[in-house]
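Memo to structure team: turn this sequence into structure tokens by end of day. - J.P.
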Amino acid sequence: MPVWNFGQPMNGIVQVAYTTDDIRRDMDRFTRQLGIGPWFLFEGFEFQWCRFRGDETSLGIDLAMGFNGHMMFELIEQTCDSPSPYRETVEKRGHGFHHWARTCPQGEYDSICEAYAADGFELALEAAVTVGGRAAYVDTYDTLGGMIELIEMTPEVEELFAMIHHESRLWDGSDPVRRLGPPQ
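Reply from structure team:
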């Protein structure tokens, strides 16, 4: 089975994500209780464009990614009042599990999104990120209890994920949070 440079299977689940109202507190909890780390924190995560339920939106989030083994974990804190898939989930059940992420080989992203839509699932969020590539949240909340994120795996995204995975393999427990992204 072909795998990405960070060890997860192509077209497979590579990430489990959670919303939080305090990303720094939860990075610490997930490290202490689950052994995840180090975390790579993107404060003021930037989108090239973003649509929520078909409407253009401006969405402010901080996010942190870290590995345990080959599985990536993500924490997301929304920093604005805009409607979003994160707010929808929090309103339904509070903070916690939000989505699984599935990678899509470059060139297959559009057809995978279309296949979910053909099966009756709405794309709750579509966006392009500044690191390269696109992402979408498929609203599978009613059938799976969470959403599925589809990540277009460009070389830049794979390089980022591989770097975070590599750092986790070398991690000695020190420097548990590494900051990425624009200065605040």
